Amino acid sequence: MPDTDFEAPGLSSTSSAPPRVQEISSEISGFIAKNGWKRVDKTEFEGSVGLRLYLDVRNVLLDVTIIVNNDPLYIAFYARLPMRCQPEYELLVDDYLSEYNYGQSIGFMQRNKHDGALEYQFSFSVAHSFFIEDFELYFNACLYSAAIAYPEVSKLCAGRLTRAQLAEVKIKLQELTRALDN
Questions:
Q1: Average pLDDT for residues 124-149, to the nearest whole number?
Q2: Mean of all residue pLDDT scores within the chain
Q3: Predicted local distance difference test score (pLDDT) of residue 40
Q4: Which of 18, 133, 142, 177 matches a 20 to 30 Å C-alpha distance to 91?
Q5: CB atoms within 10 A of CB 125
């Protein structure tokens, strides 16, 4: 399917990406169009293609990036949540993400240590074959995993704890302080 729904500034109509990367990114653009979504950006870099869009999933606006990487040939998803973790709450959020990720069968949620952003990530190889049906399953799983984490992680990022959570945090901090003093 031709990739004609958007031309990013600075990109020529001839792609520098290898043919297989072009083919896969074109199929993904077709999938995006079929679902009525608008791609907001397309970039090419070092033989790879990046597609970016915003999607509302379960009332959470996700900033989604899809990268078709050339060498090695794989697809990566990044679904960024619409918030940042305040530095004083990093330990709380990291502890929550550790438990949250344990239950995930594909992908993981992480906090960017530089800017506090939270995003769900997943990648898979397409070196041997690419099936849009598989892409759709993985893509949807990542989007929903990010959206499901949002309610709890957004509270933690702002330090909004229940009384029970606050009591647990205080106990852990006392234990940590004692351990560090020894």
A1: 94
A2: 88
A3: 84
A4: 142
A5: 12
3-state helix, strand, coil in the chain (%, to 5): 40, 30, 30
- At residue 14, the pLDDT reads 55
State the pLDDT at residue 3. Answer: 37
Report phi then psi at 36, rounded to 5.
80, 15
Of 63, 72, 55, give the one whose Cα is nearest residue 123. Answer: 72
For the chain, domains (ranges, CATH) are: 19-181 (3.30.1460.70)
- Helix count and strand count (H, E) for the chain: 4, 6
Q: Where are the beta strands (DSSP E) in 9-160?
A: 39-45, 48-57, 60-69, 74-84, 108-111, 117-125
pTM: 0.83
Q: Residue 35 pLDDT > 90, yes or no?
A: yes
Cα 133 to Cα 150: distance, rounded to the nearest angstrom: 26
- How far, in Å, CA of 135 to CA of 30, rounded? 12
Which tokens go with 98? Answer: 């550790």
- Give the three-class secondary structure for 25: helix
Mean pLDDT of 137-147: 93
Alpha-carbon span 126 to 76, nearest angstrom? 10
For residues 76 and 123, the answer to whether their CB atoms sit within 8 Å is: yes
Grouping H, G, I as helix, E, B as strand and the rest as coil, residue 67 is strand
